[in-house]
Design a protein that fits this description.
By secondary structure, the protein is of the alpha+beta class. Helices cover about 15% and strands about 30% of the residues. The chain has a domain at about 35-99: SH3 type barrels. The protein has one helix spanning about 35-50, and strands spanning about 55-65, 65-75, 80, 85-90, 95-99. It has a 5-stranded antiparallel beta sheet, with helices on one face. It is elongated, with a radius of gyration of 24 Å. The chain starts with about 35 loop residues before the first helix and ends with a strand.
Length: about 100
């Protein structure tokens, strides 16, 4: 274990690079989203009425404050109920997808 390893040669870079490009991406704002509340409600209805939904379903929710992976177990007229006891208002959801 006391062996000395050879040093690694690193050639110093002394020139300037001009091929670096700045890339900007502006995500869609909530007002620019194509899905309306009706689309989200129909997607939720499809998830709960599908044959593979027995008790719970893993979904990805896109909301104003980010994307959330959660397990949905129930719903009311205005909210979704998750496995860990959260109540998420349907009006705050921009998109919902099955995992």
């Amino acid at each position: 274990m006391d062996k000395k390893l050879p040093e690694v040669f690193a050639n110093p870079i002394q020139k300037e690079f001009h091929n670096v490009q700045d890339v900007y991406y502006e995500g869609m704002r909530p007002s620019q989203r194509k899905n309306s509340v009706q689309d989200v409600v129909s997607k939720i209805r499809d998830i709960f009425s599908s044959k593979d939904f027995v008790y719970k379903k893993e979904v990805v929710l896109t909301m104003a404050d980010g994307v959330m992976d959660t397990v949905v177990v129930g719903r009311t007229e205005q909210s979704l109920l998750t496995m860990n006891g959260e109540v998420i208002p349907i009006a705050s959801i921009f998109d919902i997808e099955k995992k």
